[in-house]
Amino acid sequence: MHPYFMPIAKQCGGTVEVKDKGLVILGSNDYLGLTQDERVKTAARNALTDFGTSCTGSRFLTGTLTLHEEIEQRLAKFFNKESVLTFSAGYLGCLSVIAALAGRKDVLYFDRENHSSLYDGATLSPAKLRKFKHNDLDQLEKMLKEDQDKNIGKIIVSDGVFSMSGHIADLPRLVELAKKYNAKLIIDDAHGAGVLGPNGEGTAAHFGLEDEVDLIVGTFSKSFASVGGYVAGKREVVSFIKHKARPFIFTAALPSMQMAAALEALNIIEKENKHKEKLWQNVKHYQEGMAELGFNTMGTQTPIVPVFIGEDEAALAFWKMLWEEGVFTTPAMSPAVPLGQSIIRTSVNANHTTEQIDKVLAAFENVGKKLGIIS
């Protein structure tokens, strides 16, 4: 049985039906559980009635709806930024921002674990790319110091929450280095928005550094219960991206249903903190349980919980045995991770019940002991 492209037939709360089998899903990025919220679904249905199924054109031409402008204004206020631009996918947002802003006389400084969409943006740009070890900001400073006297633009780019490890970027130090070496700072907060910050505003708000990050890019496909992407920053910079980024200019606009769903999710996030509170209760219960069992969760700080397995064959066997126990997870094996460092990538959300998490912990204990991962 192949672990990827599994077709989900039905979803209810923290469970799914795949190939006529009921499973606890432990790999979704629906952190706040809002994809199944009736208010979100109703908003999408109403937009479908008002605007139809597609914009059938780019934002430059006939594709801009009042919904696009409304959510951009609302997100700018939410992230405490002057302006926001939305994209048809989070991938296109990262691609657009890096490709549009990084020029021939610029250097991009990337954390090695940055998302692939950022790396693809760097490939499209003529800028030089320098990579530093994951969260090794001493190495980053060494690079910045080496380039200090050169006539170049410096752009530091990092995930806010890293999608595989669950680590939170050391944003205070990144801000410090950006100021010290006159660099711009871009944060991809796809996995931080809705999860971190007093009201889910993300990694910058988590550290109280909203004003110190030049650009925040993100996606609607996690906490915002939809699909699409965004960039938030100064008005003139966002306007430049709007008129320069080819992945934005030559892509059909995001359909009304997706905009309306994301907008209603934003309404809920702003008004109801209970979803984030429930998420973190579940995170605490799950992470403490895994630690007690003796699993290596690689220092995660978020709902993303990687479980270290080692060899690819062991990870594949572990995944299959979890499936048989009624738990749906995702293995990450080489070349997605270095050889011999395969993991089972898990994540909890606000829809999981205590009983479901207990079932997951029991399954991990059973499989872990059978395969000799824990004793």
Please explain how this structure is put together:
With 375 residues, the chain is of the alpha/beta class. The protein has two domains: 8-31 and 273-370, Aspartate Aminotransferase, domain 1; 38-271, Aspartate Aminotransferase, domain 2, CATH 3.40.640. The protein has 13 helices and 14 strands. The strands form three sheets. A seven-stranded mixed β-sheet has the order 4-10-9-8-7-5-6, sandwiched between helices. Strands 1-2-3-12 form a four-stranded mixed β-sheet. Strands 11-14-13 form a three-stranded antiparallel β-sheet, with helices on one face. It starts with 7 loop residues before the first strand and ends in a 5-residue tail after the last helix. The mean pLDDT is 97.
CATH class category of the largest domain: Alpha Beta
- Please state the second-level CATH architecture of the largest domain: 3-Layer(aba) Sandwich
Strand arrangement, major sheet:
4-10-9-8-7-5-6
Total domains, how many?
A: 2
Q: What is the count of DSSP helices, taking H or I runs of 4+ residues?
A: 13
Which range does the strand content fall in? 15-25%
What average pLDDT do the residues reach? 97
Q: How many beta-strand runs?
A: 14
According to CATH, the homologous superfamily of the largest domain is Type I PLP-dependent aspartate aminotransferase-like (Major domain)
* Alpha-carbon Rg, integer: 21 Å
Which residues sit in consecutive blocks of at least 5 with pLDDT less than 50? none
Order of helices and strands: EEEHHEHEHEHEHEHEEHHHHEHEEEH
